[in-house]
Design brief:
Elements lengths: L2 E5 L4 H12 L3 E6 L18 E5 L5 H8 L4 E4 L13 H22 L3 E7 L23 H20 L2 E7 L1 E3 L7 H11 L3 E4 L6 E2 L1 E3 H15 L9 E3 L5 E2 H12 L4 E4 L18 H4 L9 H14 L1 H4 L7
Parallel strand pairs: 1-2, 1-4, 2-3, 4-5, 5-6, 6-11, 7-10, 8-13
Antiparallel strand pairs: 9-12
């Protein structure tokens, strides 16, 4: 049995990871400020022995140190994930993604924890020339402050690996789907259609091609890499976590509208990008994580259907009061 700290552990991916760790019999400390995390996501977890919640911001160094103290490993998942609005609030990504990561690493150094798993992003590849994009692809000029901040955080982690013999494992995710998903365009489309089932606005031309992954498969990949590198002090290993498949945005819209039994008028705002910094194609090479025996268990369509089923089953979380049946 080991002790894990999960920052952002009341969020979408973090709470699913915390559940998986507890199911393995480990102690789990959740650190979350509940800006996007939800108490409902960890209610069952906190009823189990060996689990603890510390409510706090990652800019609060005392809270971070209390959460990390005694941990064998930190999974650092808490971050600002509003990619679309990065250029409206440029300092937020730096504070919540870069400075916060520095605070986590310093708390780890002070308390003797030397293992960190980090939720990075496929956005660090910007608009690459290689598809599917492998971990060793050249990193181009960044197109979003979110990607920039995650790349900077990876760099800081690699320095602690080199300087303090940490084990550093950044995971570059595609968009993740599944239970407890409450942020992203599938969520936005669902809510918009519940508000007005006659029409839907889609940013860009709807032809943006993205890869997605089911949250259970994401967690399984994280754990596979963690198990593999547990004793590899001084190692820095980046893993892409994605799917061999991709899905065009308009096709995801078609799936959502079919699930809701709707035929809305679709309005595209135009252009190949939904917003400044949006990548029209994200498709990651997952050969490296597959070498550890991992593979997705669900297709993208299956993951999307599971997400929509969870939306339908949890209107009190997904929908504002006025839209609940």
């Amino acid at each position: 049995m080991a002790r894990f700290c999960v920052t952002g552990g009341a969020g979408f991916i973090g709470s699913n990871l915390a559940d998986a760790l507890a199911a393995r019999g480990h102690e789990v400390v959740v650190l979350d400020d509940f800006r996007t995390g939800r108490h409902e996501f960890i209610e069952e977890l906190l009823g189990k022995p060996g689990t603890e919640l510390i409510e706090g911001d990652l800019l609060d160094t005392d809270a971070v140190r209390r959460a990390v103290d005694g941990a064998d490993m930190v999974f650092h998942l808490q971050a600002n994930a509003d990619v679309r609005f990065g250029f409206d609030r440029p300092t937020v990504d730096i504070e919540q993604n870069v400075i916060a990561t520095s605070n986590v690493l310093e708390a780890m150094r002070a308390t003797g924890c030397r293992r960190i798993g980090f939720s990075s992003t496929g956005s660090v590849y910007g608009e690459p020339e290689i598809f599917p994009t492998p971990e060793h692809a050249p990193i181009p000029a960044q197109t979003s402050l979110y990607g920039t901040s995650k790349m900077a955080a990876e760099g800081i982690i690699s320095s602690y690996v080199s300087g303090f013999d940490f084990v550093g494992i950044p995971f570059r995710f595609v968009s993740i789907l599944g239970e407890r998903y409450t942020h992203g365009h599938v969520f936005d489309f669902y809510r918009a259609l519940k508000k007005d089932p006659t029409q839907l606005t889609v940013l860009g031309d709807g032809k943006q091609n993205k890869s997605y992954l089911y949250v259970g498969d994401c967690v399984a990949g994280i754990l596979a890499a963690t198990d593999h590198h547990w004793d590899d002090a001084g190692s820095f290993n980046v893993y892409n976590l994605g799917h061999d498949e991709t899905l065009v945005v308009d096709d995801s819209v078609a799936t959502i509208t079919a699930k809701l039994g709707l035929t809305p008028e679709i309005h595209h705002t135009g252009g190949s990008r939904g917003w400044k910094g949006d990548s029209p194609l994200i498709h990651l090479d997952t050969t490296k994580i597959k070498s550890l025996g991992w593979a997705p268990s669900l297709t993208i369509q299956q993951a999307l259907h599971k997400t929509l089923e969870w939306f339908d089953a949890n209107p009190e979380i997904v929908l504002p009061q006025e839209l609940r049946a």
